[in-house]
Amino acid sequence: MAVHRKKDCTPSAWFWESPDTLAQLEVVRQWIGKHYKKPPPAKKSIVTLQLLQFQEDAFGRQVTNPALSKLSAQCFLDLRPGGGLCHILGTAYRFKAEQGWSVSHLWSCSHMPLILIVF
Questions:
Q1: Does 81 reside within a domain?
Q2: In a domain, 39, yes or no
Q3: Tens of pLDDT, residues 66-100
């Protein structure tokens, strides 16, 4: 499957919601459950697309003075067990649990200073 970068720098919902990618995200979900969180996060709570959008909104090209640089896209595309995406999402879920947030609050703008700690 070919992955094409969109011109507006937003994440590709088509890629992250495709059946092939969702099957690979199941492996990521199970790995997170084994190494970071017991039980594994629900299928609907794999928030890769939201994380990518947050990163673009907070650190992207349109931001005049970004606090940090963005994580490499290669890290997000590493869908192997123990790969980049596993560690990114595992760290985010662990931080969310430590803060007592629900999944819907994970990328809330009101939590921006704390979210920056994750990065």
A1: yes
A2: yes
A3: 777 788 888 888 999 999 999 988 888 888 778 77
Q: Is the pTM of this model over 0.85?
A: no
Alpha helices by DSSP H, listed for 1-119, are 13-16, 19-35, 48-59, 73-77, 84-99, 112-118
Query: Distance between CA atoms of 78 and 100, rounded to whole angstroms?
Result: 28
And the tokens for 54? 């947050």
Domain count, the chain: 1
pLDDT above 90 for 115: no
In a domain, 11, yes or no: no
Euclidean distance between CA atoms 69 and 3, whole angstroms: 22
Domain annotation covers residue 105: no
